[in-house]
């Protein structure tokens, strides 16, 4: 009975992470890592690896659903960012195997706090973009490498940083940036989770409840996002960035 109850808890938490993935374009890793640590009793490094596996499925579900959304993926900036974010996630995987993550978590928190205010104020350009508005390709690659490293290291897809980058740097509206971010998160999750599997992570079967819940949740999250006002999502995402930054900072200070 306890085992069944735990499976149900994991499925519900996966559903919640999936909804967050669809609404905010973040993959859901910010929910999956603490779920595995505190609800399932996993170690932090195993939870990070598992989170990235789940992120692959949640972001895939959300990306497929986004094809029917009012704000579909902008594939040019998505592929441009994925080309640097996904490979760089392996740097984070490597760092996680040889060193503590506290310093990088602190840096991640500072970046989120710095971006939260401009993200909340930005209105984006609304219409689809045709190129990297205001950003050179080398700069995009540099940002992408940093985001990818953080993704592989702390077990998130990177969407919490990708969304403001797509809004502020590429001129995308909030909803279109979220759709585009989810596509980048999908490619990043594939590469990073493959890196962890190659280094020995193999406990995949036990992730089934979270995977199923996340896939259903992401589909529902995209539908919910279509109904919500642009301003509400923009301000809500900025608030989410602050909460994520503070939670990550507390985790880092606990490690130190």
Automatic annotation (TrEMBL):
Keyword list (alphabetical) reads: Cell membrane, Membrane, Transmembrane, Transmembrane helix
Task: Please report the record's description of how this protein sits within the membrane.
Answer: Multi-pass membrane protein
> What is the name of this protein?
Probable membrane transporter protein
Q: Where are the transmembrane segments?
A: 37-57, 140-165, 177-197, 204-220, 232-250
Highest rank taxon of the organism = Bacteria
UniProt subcellular location:
Cell membrane; Membrane
A Pfam entry, by short name: TauE
One GO cellular-component annotation of the UniProt record comes to: plasma membrane
